[in-house]
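Service request form, structural biology core

Requester: graduate student, group of Dr. S.
Request type: structure prediction, single chain
Budget code: on file
Notes: please return the result as structure tokens.

Sequence provided:
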Amino acid sequence: MNKPVKLVSYIRVSTQRQGDSGLGLDAQRSCVQQYADSTNSDIIAEYVEVESGKRTNRAQLAAAIDFCSKNDATLVIAKLDRLARNVHFVSGLLESGVRFHAADMPNADRFMLHVYAAMAEEEGRRISERTKAALAAARARGVKLGVTGQALADKHKASADVFARSMAGTIQAYKDTGLSVRQIAVRLNQENTPTFSGNKWHPTTVQRLIKRIDALC
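Core staff response, request fulfilled:
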């Protein structure tokens, strides 16, 4: 029998509130554990970071990389976008010499990791642009942002969370049957299930819903 591979788990959440409550942490731990089980690996250490994805100065990540180097271990995260929406940052990590895997892409080679990092970075940029455009349009319509705007945002988020919870069982059932994100989108459209905004499903829409569900776990 082959000797188990040593893994170091790196988990990141974006806010202190998420870190304190554990929102998203259990989902990431579960994903990493499933990866470990499927690859005959042992998780010998875990590092948890509470930091925005836009920041690249992360003490816990640096500690995790150092631990991997000293213990001949492999760094593993649940999802690539949990690491950073920054191609340069991911490239630097890959060039550090430390073995690195994303549990959601266990067979991805270095080229694929670069591509997915670029896609995550572009998605982050588009989200930022859409948010700025929406705020500018609201101001142009005379909407007063601040307390009222925050209240509306909180109401929208609460409604989106309720929708995500209502879809959690369906999404998990599809995932358990081995359907990909694209296949799940097709199935939901075939069943005439609308998205939260009442539109058709796309792979990116399903992926965002899965992320919201994971964050609520």
